[in-house]
Fold this sequence. Notes:
The complex is a heterodimer. Chain A is of the alpha/beta class. Chain A folds into 2 domains: 1-80 and 169-262, P-loop containing nucleotide triphosphate hydrolases (Rossmann fold, 3-Layer(aba) Sandwich); 91-157, no CATH class. Chain A has 9 helices and 10 strands. Chain A has helices spanning 48-55, 87-90, 97-102, 113-126, 142-155, 172-189, 200-206, 234-239, 241-264; strands at 7-17, 23-33, 37-41, 63-68, 71-72, 80-83, 160-164, 192-197, 209-213, 218-225. In chain A, β4 and β5 form a beta hairpin. The longest helix of chain A has 24 residues, at 241-264. The relative contact order of chain A is 0.16. The model of chain A has no long low-confidence stretch (mean pLDDT 87). By secondary structure, chain B is an all-alpha fold. Chain B has a single domain (53-253), classed as Orthogonal Bundle (MetI-like fold), CATH 1.10.3720. Chain B contains 11 helices and no strands. The longest helix of chain B is centred in the last third of the chain and has 38 residues, at 161-198. The radius of gyration of chain B is 22 Å and the shape is globular. Chain B starts with 9 loop residues before the first helix and ends with a helix. Classes of the chains: A alpha/beta, B mainly alpha. The A-B interface holds A 53, 56, 58, 76, 78, 80-82, 84, 86, 89-90, 92-95, 103-104, 107, 136, 138-139, 156 and B 147-150, 152-153, 155-159, 163, 167-168, 171-172, 174, 248-249, 251-252, 255.
Amino acid sequence: MANPSEVLLDVKGLQKRYADGTLAVQEITLNVRAREFVSIVGPSGCGKTTLLKTICALLAPTKGSVALHGTLITEPPPQMVLVFQDYARSLFPWLSVMGNVVFPLRKRKDISQEEKEQACSRAIAAVGLTKFAKHYPWQLSGGMQQRVAIARAVAFRPEILLLDEPFASVDALTRADLEDLTLHLRDEFGITMLLVTHDIDEAVYLSDRVFVLSTPPSTVLEEIAIPLKQPRDQVRTRSEPGFLELRNHIHGLIGKRQEEHARAFTIPDPVTPALELEGDPVG
Amino acid sequence: MRFFFNRGNGLGVGTVAALLIIWELYGRIHPTVYVPAFSTVFVTFIHEWFSPTFGQQAVPSLGRMIIGYTCASCIGIAIGIFIGTFKRLYQLLDPVLQFWRAIPATAIIPVGILLIGIGDPMKWVVIAFGSIWPILINTADGARLVPTERLDTARIFGLSPLETLVRVIVPSAAPMIAAGMRTGLSIAFIMIVVSEMIGSTDGLGYYILQAQRTFAIPEMYGGIALLAILGYLLNTLFVWCEHKVLAWHYGQTTRPA
């Protein structure tokens, strides 16, 4: 088990330029410590998904490096799992919930069959879907499907979980449940969490640290520590004065940049000739 | 039995019965050589097909069709998966494939006779050529349209390319493959009849054409009726198998929104 202040994931000067020349990520430097909950917040279009995929080595960076435990990553490492935003497209409809959760473990030879089944049952229980283990994903609601995706990731026993706006496609009440679920999973399984979101409140609620990204092409605007009390609680934490301060600060950061960004792209008004009106104006 | 008469088909069966009655009456009131009454055809049908003729004519036809169709399925699915997985290959081959599929398979029969001769192999090739296209193209589309999230998930969990192919791409593409195979089956059925009419000494196609030439008119209609029944049975069997294998897909699509 890594000691709590060890840097688990080290991202240095990461840049991603697509083949067609678009710069999605300009320069990102951040780190995540063991058992930490880190969020990345930014306006839409700032390349958050690209960033996660590059960290995960699904995409190769144009510049910069990603290191896990000090070792450079070139292929998706088994200690890291990415949970996608669109659960419907990432789950396998031909497998049951249990089938989906056990799927990544099938070929692992270092764990016995019994241990695999145990890990799966535990993961399914942790997300509260024990009763639905034999159901198919498409028989479940959106929130439940996302839980299956999370259970599948957790059963694989990764050290760090990357979450790409995982709760964006579910309703607000379910979102609160799932937020607490990820906190609970971090506590129960000791998994480090790196969450990407556009929801500032969510980022502040969940995290130990927040990295705020700029408008595209993105860089890290600021790294903010969140010293709010643990364990977090939907009602208590969100009413703490510190919560409001932090979220407003981040809002201000992003809002200002968005404004600057928008101004740079304003279309100037067309020049209209002054009209001479005859007679008195009405009213 | 329910599977044959699904969709609450009391009305459907009644319509069929009514049409048969009309046919019978027409045949009685206005008898001609070319359109015998239903009862005549029915009696001939029973006489012909519950006899060795079935083994001599129908079984060879079915046998050739199954061989041709199986070849088409195996080759079509294999090539389709290959093309669908490698996008560059798909772009490269698409114009060629579109040209080849546009050729009506019946037009290939003279080529088959020239190159392979008249015999069973020619029929296998011609049937395969006709039925491969919907299978191949549907498979390629199915493989191409696997959601990237699923492929990424496979990579994240460390699946090898072969495992990804077998455990992710093929199941994802399975519904489209099945649709292609169903179309291919209908085409295989047509192709066997046509190829036997043109170059054969036995088979259902040969039988029907011979019946026409020798003015064995009830036998001709009987042969056609048998084709219809066999086609219906084959299709029903296919759909039954498909619903078993792809139960997950049908559960998904019939679920209320």
